[in-house]
Amino acid sequence: VQLQASGGGLVQAGDSLRLSCAASGRTSRTMGWFRQAPGKEREFVGVSRFSTGTTYYADSVKGRFTISRDNAKNTVYLQMNSLNPEDTADYYCAASTSTIILSAIRSRASYDYWGQGTQVTVSS
After folding, report:
1. How far does the chain reach from its first CA to its final CA, in angstroms?
2. From CA 89, how far away is CA 38, in angstroms rounded?
3. Residues 43-60: pLDDT tens digits?
4. What's 112's DSSP letter?
5. What ranges make up the beta strands (E) of 1-124?
6. Section 24-38 average pLDDT
7. % the chain with pLDDT above 70
8. How far is Cα 4 from Cα 13, in angstroms, rounded to an integer?
9. 22 with 72: CB under 8 angstroms?
10. Taking the mean position of all CA atoms in its chain, how far away is CA 67?
């Protein structure tokens, strides 16, 4: 699976931004996003489990971020609203072609494929 992420940029607090992740190759079962702020570990943001149509979000973004999917384009989106400076990070698209058990859905180790990061900077 090859993943191509795009859509990052510099925005002000309160603004919105939409990231895209275009996938090619094998069919993924779960796709989503992680992020890594400077000096911090890469953390879970949210993912979509395609078999059930269920999405899972980190508490820090719940209610502000939304993951959607365009099947025709094989692309997953991350709509980010009400951005704040704490959202500043490199955002990485991730995918798995295997079934991930629910208890591991937020773990980086569950995802076999990663896109390049796209940088999001939110100024105050």
Report:
1. 37
2. 7
3. 999 999 998 999 999 999
4. -
5. 2-6, 9-12, 17-24, 30-36, 43-49, 54-57, 65-70, 75-80, 89-96, 113-114, 118-123
6. 94
7. 100
8. 26
9. no
10. 8
